[in-house]
């Protein structure tokens, strides 16, 4: 009986150690304000070639008017939809990831300087 009780206590102790949450939180603050999704998307498409870039620019010329009356989310979805015309499904997923990370923000900011 003592062995069963000791084993139960030991298993409870191990379960509590395993169930302990382990997480890492990182934060990065840039010296510049947030850059527009449209410019970051243009940088992403521009890496694939000048021809795709200019076709994308021709396609999104009128988006600046559209943005003024719409929410940020619907504007983001429209940009993704327009970019998908020039990208594969994998590239669209990579674009979404890049926009979430704001990885093209430094390039946009540098070109604005």
TrEMBL record:
InterPro entries: UDP-g_GGtrans, UGGT_TRXL_1
Residue ranges annotated for the UGGT thioredoxin-like domain, each copy included: 35-113
Membrane-spanning segments: none
Leader sequence residues: 1-19
Keywords: Signal
Parts forming coiled coils: none
Domain of life: Eukaryota
Name of this chain's protein: UDP-glucose:glycoprotein glucosyltransferase 2
Organism: Xenoophorus captivus
Gene that encodes it: UGGT2
């Amino acid at each position: 009986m003592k062995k069963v009780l000791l084993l139960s206590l030991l298993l409870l102790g191990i379960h509590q150690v395993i169930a302990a949450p382990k997480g890492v939180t990182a934060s990065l603050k840039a010296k510049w304000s947030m850059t527009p999704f449209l410019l970051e998307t243009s940088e992403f498409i521009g890496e694939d070639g000048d021809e795709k870039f200019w076709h994308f620019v021709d396609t999104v010329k009128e988006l600046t008017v559209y943005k003024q009356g719409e929410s940020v989310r619907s504007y983001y979805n429209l940009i993704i939809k327009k970019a998908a015309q020039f990208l594969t499904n994998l590239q669209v997923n990579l674009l979404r990831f890049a926009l979430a990370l704001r990885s093209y923000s430094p390039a946009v900011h540098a070109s604005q300087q």
